[in-house]
Automatic annotation (TrEMBL):
<dbReference type="InterPro" id="IPR036388">
    <property type="entry name" value="WH-like_DNA-bd_sf"/>
</dbReference>
<dbReference type="InterPro" id="IPR011006">
    <property type="entry name" value="CheY-like_superfamily"/>
</dbReference>
<dbReference type="InterPro" id="IPR001789">
    <property type="entry name" value="Sig_transdc_resp-reg_receiver"/>
</dbReference>
<feature type="domain" description="HTH luxR-type">
    <location>
        <begin position="124"/>
        <end position="189"/>
    </location>
</feature>
<dbReference type="InterPro" id="IPR016032">
    <property type="entry name" value="Sig_transdc_resp-reg_C-effctor"/>
</dbReference>
<feature type="domain" description="Response regulatory">
    <location>
        <begin position="5"/>
        <end position="115"/>
    </location>
</feature>
<dbReference type="GO" id="GO:0003677">
    <property type="term" value="F:DNA binding"/>
</dbReference>
<dbReference type="Pfam" id="PF00196">
    <property type="entry name" value="GerE"/>
</dbReference>
<dbReference type="InterPro" id="IPR000792">
    <property type="entry name" value="Tscrpt_reg_LuxR_C"/>
</dbReference>
<protein>
    <recommendedName>
        <fullName>DNA-binding response regulator</fullName>
    </recommendedName>
</protein>
<dbReference type="GO" id="GO:0000160">
    <property type="term" value="P:phosphorelay signal transduction system"/>
</dbReference>
<keyword id="KW-0804">Transcription</keyword>
<dbReference type="GO" id="GO:0006355">
    <property type="term" value="P:regulation of DNA-templated transcription"/>
</dbReference>
<keyword id="KW-0238">DNA-binding</keyword>
<keyword id="KW-0805">Transcription regulation</keyword>
Length: 197
């Protein structure tokens, strides 16, 4: 799978660095640069040609009214906006938006979907990339025999989130039994034979 590159542009140091920290848990991706200067956005995007630009709309240069069409020429850029306004995505014709209040899982799943869609044609095993990095992590814990509560405690998430991920994994893979999921996890190097009790 090709490695996706990401730029983060926000005028808040805490948000830039916090988001970069979260994205370190995203597979097959790399944060190229953090941008804190509104005037440099166009130049850096056009020179580094990232796969994904995550940007606060307040960082948009005045001459970039239609940001995506300006940047997308030759870049195949996915535009993700950082905002607390739900309608911002349509306003700027963006591919997605991240709310400042979104949980880490929501952000990772959103970006994993974008990356998977970008790599769709290069994926030899469709099932292996159907589930997100977080779902693979949940799957690993399931195959180790942990209960929903134990998984929630280890990953610092709610039981409801674990149950939702578990349901999504089952639906996406079409595998309902733990033994079937274990075989899948071994075949796709999510877990090794030595880890299975």
């Amino acid at each position: 799978m090709a490695r996706s590159t990401i730029l983060i542009a926000d005028n808040s140091c805490i948000i830039r660095k916090g988001l970069r920290s979260i994205l370190q848990n995203l597979e097959n991706s790399e944060v190229l640069q953090l941008i804190d200067n509104k005037e440099e956005v166009c130049e850096i995007v056009n020179s580094s040609k990232p796969d994904i630009l995550i940007i606060n709309p307040n960082m948009l240069p005045a001459d970039c009214a239609d940001l995506k069409s300006k940047f997308i020429n030759g870049n195949k850029l996915s535009l993700v906006l950082l905002s607390d306004k739900k309608k911002i995505k349509e306003e700027y014709k963006a591919d997605a938006y991240i709310n400042y209040l979104d949980e880490q899982d929501v952000i990772l799943d959103l970006l994993q979907e974008i990356i998977s869609a970008k790599n769709k044609n290069a994926i030899p095993d469709k099932n292996a990339d159907t589930i997100s990095s977080r779902e693979k992590n949940i799957l690993k814990h399931i195959t180790l025999g942990l209960t929903n509560k134990e998984i929630a405690d280890q990953l610092f998430i709610s039981i409801h989130t674990v149950v939702t991920h578990r349901k999504n994994i089952t639906q996406k893979l079409g595998i309902k039994s733990v033994s079937g999921l274990t075989v899948y996890a071994i075949l796709h190097n999510i877990i090794s034979m030595d880890e299975v009790k």
